Structure formats: structure tokens, C-alpha cells
């Protein structure tokens, strides 16, 4: 029987502080709890500071209202500022860096549509858009507005962001070889 | 290392393997440990530290590690059973909830943002600490009545969004859960490790808490009896923005087949069941009359009087929609 574990990670049989294992953009990592990562380390800090994934931005001081630190945790769009790193043991995490490696059409669509001005909110928007398209490959305008409503762009490039997301949906559809004109 | 923004206040994280383990950990810390699941409210508190030091948690007890998982939605013998740590997004998408318990699905869909709905849980939503400009500021700025102080700063300050049904324990902070009125209207039951509570009796106004739960008590399940076949439910929310905002007024109603239930939230320190409106409807009165009765007894102040007309309109609109006579769409 497993006992309650005050270190916040897996406890090995010797009872030493646990480790957490996460998959980030397809690569597996292991962190020692209490050494590499503390119980009160936010996922965003772990990904930025230990893994150098600087696409994770902070706009709202970690209050969960801006969406610019959005990552996917097991496919769910998640605010990494309000997620504990140790709570992600065994989970799969995706960031914009992963989409860049795999050549996801969202990146090109955002670029072609100038769906940014300063670019600070862009990684968060792209991750929310990825979550939306994963669940709904053929979103209506309203679906896109709703799906991206947890992200803020202070430059006001919303119209371009909506077009880019729709364009990426079409590109994914073409890639799958389905329908189209 | 680059430190971004404000760090979280330090705490221990206890991954509970069972409900018993969670309860034992909570009683060991005697109020200094808080249950933890979605974290969207708890971690905000740990980052922004609105409470005096002696009320801040030193430990979080993780309920997501409990086995068997408390994240599930099922219906058995006409009773919907939702596990405490079920995510709001899963509830809003669930075909079962959407078909028989519309108000609950709509309430879940109305919460905050897509990200927060994917993270936040049903038990967390109804237990969250409420919203008030003064309460959410650090304790050394506003040591208000809900933090053990003697003053309610809102009453002599900005109370535009606060209670229109007066104060409880000298606090006019409204309960801002979207799920709460849906559960009250649907007559839900909140099951804990100790007892089963009628939804209506679940909330309280404490320092600083929002529920009647003991320190070593956790919600395990929410139960809702399926409304009769001819009844329909509806949830509506009024807020400044369509996304992220807490409700300024929200309402859930169940109507038809001899059932009439009306519950409002964000208008009082606890979710408010409008019995007077229900009596009007059961006595054959109109939606208009019911909506008017729903706000009987309100004691607004100069700056939050506007909530009355908004609440009346929402009640009327929700009742019309539930009876199939109101137009969908075109929010308030």
C-alpha cells in the first residue's frame, strides 16, 4: 500500500525523496524532488529555468488571467503558472518549441497572417489553438473565438489570430487529404 | 535562475493515495493544510497571499492522486454522480450532463476560460474563496472582516459588485461560483467523507472559508437526481466580459412538470434560492411576476442597485427559455 508522500513526488523503496518523470515535447526528463524541483515550483518555472523553454511568457504575474503561459498537459490547455511541476509526474507536456520541431501548420499560419505584433502572447495563443484543433478539426468562427477566449493579446491582433487559426485548420485538413476543393 | 514575478509561498505537498489518507493529513495539520485539486484558486492565494500568515496553508493535500480516481461522471438509477475532482470542461462536454442537466452543463461552460475549465474541478468551484477587491489584496493592506479583522472595507468603499441582500458576519462579499446556483436549482446533494449535504446548506460565511465543511472533511461526490421528463433547466450569467470574468449576477432555474426552482448567485454572501419566485410560478403566476418576486427582500445600496434590474431580467429570461418560449443566444 502506498503511503501519503510529503515530498510531492514518487517515493522509491528506500524512502528517499521522490523523483518526477515528465515527457516534454517527446523527450523524457527526470527531476529529483527537493533538489531539482520543489513542491512549490510552478510548472512554468521548471520548463523555463531547467529546460530553457522560453516560449512560456508571463503577462499577468501568475494569476491565471492572461493565457500567455499556456502549455498542453496530456492534451489539455493548461496555465503553467498555476500548475505545480511535481503534480505533472507521468504527464506529457507540449510547448510551442515542440510544435516548431514537428512543423505544425499553426506556426506558418500565424507567421503568414501577421498574427502578432510584439509576439509576447503568441506562444500561448498557438497552444490554445493547438488544443482547439486537436479536439475540433473544423471549427467555426465562434468555436475559434471561444477556444481562444482564455488568451489576451494586448496589441489587439485578434482578427489575424482568428484567420491564422482557421487557415491552420484548412492546412491540417489538406495534409490529412480529406475533403477540400 | 531567472525568477519570474511573484513566487508561490512555500508549502508541503502531500499526495494522498486514498480518501482516508487525505482526511488524516488534513486533521494532522489542523486547518493549516488545504485540499488541493485544480489549484486555480488555491495557487492564486499562495502567490498573492491575501490572508494573514496564521490563515495561510502550510501544506496542500493532493486529491488527484487518490485511488480510485474521483474524476468521473455517471448516472445510476436516475441519479447523476460526478466525482469531486472532475474537471469543469469534462462536465460541460459530457453528453449525459448536456441532455438531462442542461443548467449544470451551461454553468460549467460559463466558468472563466478554456484553460481554467480544463484545470478547475467541480468541488473546487463550489468551495472557492469569493471575490472582493479588498479581500483579495494582501493582508497588510486590508485586514478585513473575512480575515479576522473588524472592518468591511467594501461597505464604505467600492461595493458595486457586492451583496444586494445585506451582510453576513459583517461581510458583503458575494459568492461568485457559477456552479453553485445550478446545483441549488437542481436540488443537488454534496457528499463528503462524513455526511451528505443538501446543496442549499453547503455554504457558509467563515473566516476565511466559504463552506460548512470541517477542517478534516472533503467532498467526494456531487449527486443530482434527474429532473422529471417534462422539466427543463437553464443557466444564465451576466458579467462585463464574455470570458474570464466572475459572475456579477447569475441564475439557474428548473421548470416544468410541477417543478419550479430558481437560484441566483453573486447577489448575496451565499447562493440565494428565490423561494418567493418559486411560489409565484407554482401558483400559476407569470415569469414577469416570478422575476419580480425573486428580488423581494433585496436591500441594495446606492452603487449596487443596478444588480436588481439585471437579476430580474436574467430570472425572467431563464424562465422563458426553460419553458421553451425565450430566444436562445444574444446574451445579456
Task: Give a topology summary.
The complex is a heterodimer of chains A (181) and B (332).
Chain A lengths: L18 E6 L2 E6 L10 H8 L19 E4 L2 E4 L12 E3 L1 H7 L2 H8 L9 H14 L5 H7 L10 H19 L5
Parallel strand pairs in A: 1-5
Antiparallel strand pairs in A: 1-2, 3-4, 3-5
Helix pairs in contact in A: 3-6
Chain B lengths: L11 E4 L3 H11 L3 E4 L5 H7 L10 E4 L10 E4 L2 E5 L4 H6 L1 H6 L1 H9 L3 H6 L2 H6 L51 H7 L3 E4 L3 E3 L20 E7 L6 E7 L10 E8 L2 E7 L6 E2 L1 H8 L4 H8 L11 H17 L10
Parallel strand pairs in B: 1-3, 2-3
Antiparallel strand pairs in B: 4-5, 5-8, 6-7, 6-8, 9-10, 10-11, 11-12
Helix pairs in contact in B: 5-8, 9-10, 10-11
Describe the protein's architecture and organization.
The complex is a heterodimer of chains A (181) and B (332). Chain A has one domain (11-175): Ubiquitin-like (UB roll) (Roll). Helices cover 35% and strands 13% of the residues of chain A. Chain A is built from 6 helices and 5 strands. In chain A, a hairpin with a 2-residue loop joins strand 3 and strand 4. Mean pLDDT of chain A is 91; it is low at 12-16. The radius of gyration of chain B is 19 Å and the shape is globular. The model of chain B has no long low-confidence stretch (mean pLDDT 96). The chains are: A alpha+beta (181), B alpha+beta (332). At the A-B interface, helix 1, strand 4 and helix 4 of A face strand 1, helix 1, helix 2, strand 3 and helix 6 of B.
The profile of the biggest β sheet of chain A is: 5 strands, mixed
Structural class of chain B: alpha+beta
Oligomer: heterodimer
CATH class of chain A: Alpha Beta
The geometry of chain A reads as: globular
Q: Can you write the helix and strand succession of chain A as a string?
A: EEHEEEHHHHH
Percent of residues in helices of chain B comes to 25-40%
Main sheet strand line-up of chain B: 4-5-8-6-7
According to CATH, the homologous superfamily of chain A is: Beta-grasp domain
Molecular shape of chain B: globular
Largest sheet of chain B: 5 strands, antiparallel
Strand order of the largest sheet of chain A: 2-1-5-3-4
Specify the structural class of chain A.
Answer: alpha+beta
Please name the CATH architecture of chain A: Roll
CATH topology of chain A: Ubiquitin-like (UB roll)
As residue ranges, the low-confidence spans of chain B are none
Using a beta-carbon cutoff below 8 angstroms, give the protein chain pair with the largest interface and the number of residues from each chain: A-B, 44 and 44 residues
Amino acid at each position: 500500500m502506498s503511503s501519503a508522500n510529503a515530498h510531492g513526488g514518487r517515493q522509491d523503496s528506500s524512502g528517499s525523496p521522490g523523483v518526477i518523470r515528465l515527457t516534454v515535447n517527446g523527450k523524457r526528463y527526470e527531476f529529483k524532488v527537493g533538489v531539482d524541483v520543489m513542491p512549490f515550483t510552478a510548472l512554468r518555472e521548471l520548463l523555463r529555468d531547467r529546460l530553457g523553454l522560453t516560449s512560456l511568457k508571463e503577462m499577468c504575474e501568475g494569476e491565471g488571467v492572461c493565457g500567455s503561459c499556456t502549455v498542453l498537459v496530456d492534451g489539455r490547455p493548461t496555465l503553467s503558472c498555476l500548475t505545480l511541476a511535481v503534480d505533472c509526474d507521468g504527464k506529457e507536456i507540449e510547448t510551442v518549441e515542440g510544435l516548431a520541431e514537428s512543423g505544425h501548420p499553426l506556426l506558418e499560419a500565424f507567421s503568414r497572417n501577421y498574427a502578432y505584433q510584439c509576439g509576447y502572447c503568441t506562444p500561448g495563443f498557438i497552444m490554445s489553438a493547438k488544443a482547439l484543433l486537436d479536439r475540433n478539426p473544423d471549427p467555426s468562427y465562434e468555436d475559434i473565438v471561444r477556444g481562444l477566449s482564455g488568451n489576451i493579446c494586448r496589441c489587439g491582433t485578434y482578427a489575424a489570430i482568428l484567420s491564422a487559426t482557421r487557415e491552420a485548420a484548412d492546412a491540417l485538413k489538406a495534409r490529412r487529404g480529406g475533403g477540400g476543393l | 535562475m531567472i525568477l519570474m514575478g511573484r513566487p508561490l509561498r512555500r508549502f508541503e505537498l502531500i499526495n494522498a493515495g486514498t480518501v482516508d489518507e487525505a482526511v488524516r493529513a488534513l486533521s494532522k495539520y489542523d486547518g493549516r493544510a488545504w485540499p488541493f485539486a485544480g489549484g486555480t484558486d488555491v495557487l492564486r492565494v499562495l502567490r498573492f497571499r491575501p490572508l494573514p500568515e496564521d490563515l495561510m496553508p502550510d501544506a496542500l493535500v493532493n486529491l488527484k492522486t487518490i485511488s480510485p480516481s474521483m474524476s468521473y461522471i455517471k448516472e445510476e438509477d436516475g441519479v447523476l454522480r460526478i466525482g469531486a475532482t472532475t474537471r469543469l470542461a469534462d462536465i460541460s462536454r459530457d453528453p449525459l450532463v448536456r441532455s438531462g442537466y442542461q443548467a449544470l452543463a451551461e454553468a460549467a461552460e460559463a466558468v472563466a476560460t478554456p484553460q481554467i475549465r480544463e484545470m478547475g474541478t467541480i468541488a473546487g468551484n463550489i468551495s472557492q474563496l469569493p471575490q472582493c477587491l479588498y479581500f483579495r489584496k494582501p493582508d497588510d493592506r486590508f485586514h478585513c472582516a473575512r480575515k479576522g479583522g473588524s472592518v468591511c472595507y467594501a461597505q464604505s468603499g467600492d461595493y458595486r459588485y457586492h451583496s444586494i441582500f445585506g451582510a453576513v458576519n459583517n461581510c458583503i462579499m458575494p459568492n461568485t461560483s457559477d456552479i453553485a446556483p445550478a446545483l441549488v436549482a437542481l436540488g443537488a446533494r454534496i457528499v463528503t467523507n462524513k455526511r451528505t449535504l443538501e446543496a442549499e446548506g453547503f455554504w457558509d460565511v467563515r473566516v476565511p472559508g466559504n463552506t460548512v465543511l470541517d477542517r478534516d472533511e472533503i467532498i467526494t461526490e456531487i449527486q443530482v437526481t434527474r429532473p422529471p421528463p417534462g422539466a427543463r433547466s437553464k443557466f444564465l450569467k451576466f458579467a462585463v466580459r464574455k470570458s474570464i470574468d466572475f459572475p456579477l449576477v447569475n441564475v439557474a432555474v428548473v421548470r416544468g412538470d410541477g417543478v419550479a426552482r430558481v437560484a441566483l448567485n453573486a447577489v448575496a454572501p451565499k447562493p440565494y434560492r428565490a423561494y418567493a419566485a418559486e411560489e409565484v410560478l407554482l401558483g400559476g403566476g407569470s415569469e414577469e411576476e416570478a422575476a419580480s418576486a425573486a428580488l423581494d427582500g433585496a436591500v441594495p445600496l446606492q452603487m449596487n442597485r443596478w444588480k436588481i434590474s439585471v437579476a430580474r431580467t436574467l430570472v425572467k429570461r431563464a424562465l422563458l427559455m426553460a419553458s421553451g418560449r425565450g430566444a436562445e443566444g444574444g446574451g445579456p
